[in-house]
Amino acid sequence: MPGSHGAVFARTLSALRDVRLRSELRLTEVPAPTRIAPYAAAITADVIDVTDPEEDLATGRFVLLHDPAAPETWDGQWRIVTFARAELEPELAGDPMLGAVGWSWLSDSLSSRGLTWTAEAGTVTRVVSESFAGLADRAASVEMEIRASWTPVLGDAADHLRAWADMLCTIAGIPPLPDGVVPLPGQRR
Fold first, then answer.
1. Which Pfam families match (predicted)?
2. What's the Cα-to-Cα distance from 32 to each of 107, 151, 162, rounded to whole Å?
3. What φ, ψ does residue 80 adopt, rounded to 5°?
């Protein structure tokens, strides 16, 4: 039933649009890639500094794909593709465990919400920028990028968005909310 896949995706997209996250997160629906799957949605997120809302602590993109043909590499009909980036403390530039720690932030965020997934893949990249000559007065900076994709097994797409948002806050340096604490609805752009 080809028409039913569109209806299922529309309901899933509606659930994503209704997700409320921490007040530090600003979500924006953006155009999704069109050649990867028959159905796709994309959301960007910025983690802001509540003391200076003009400053982004981290940024990312969450893409939900649906292909009723269930591509073999996906191991399912749904696929989540994400990107997250944040500036870190310069002393972390040489930490040999930084990549493994970044990946664990993602898997821990999914696990802590009771989600399961399969066919995960991704990279953690560190970018160290040092300035010279006329820019020598700028301090060195370190950015971490986490690119990941996975197929959700347990939990709906909205749950996986919440887990990804948890990870985005973690790389921004914002501690997780304690158990039982519910975030106040954030402002959406």
1. DUF3000
2. 24, 18, 19
3. -115, 130
Q: DSSP class of residue 31?
A: P
Closest CA to 24 of 178, 187, 157: 187
Q: No. of H helices and E strands in the chain?
A: 3, 6
29 in Cβ contact with 17 (< 8 Å): yes
> Would you give the distance in Å from CA 23 to the centre of its chain?
16
Q: Which residues pair with 49 in a beta bridge?
A: 52
* Alpha helical stretches, state H, the chain: 2-18, 98-112, 157-171
pLDDT per residue as tens digits for the range 50-107 = 888 788 899 999 999 999 999 999 999 999 999 999 998 877 777 889 889 999 999 9
Whole-prediction pTM value? 0.87
Whole-number Å distance between alpha carbons of 145 and 59: 10
DSSP state of 96: T
> Tell me, what amino acid is at 88?
L
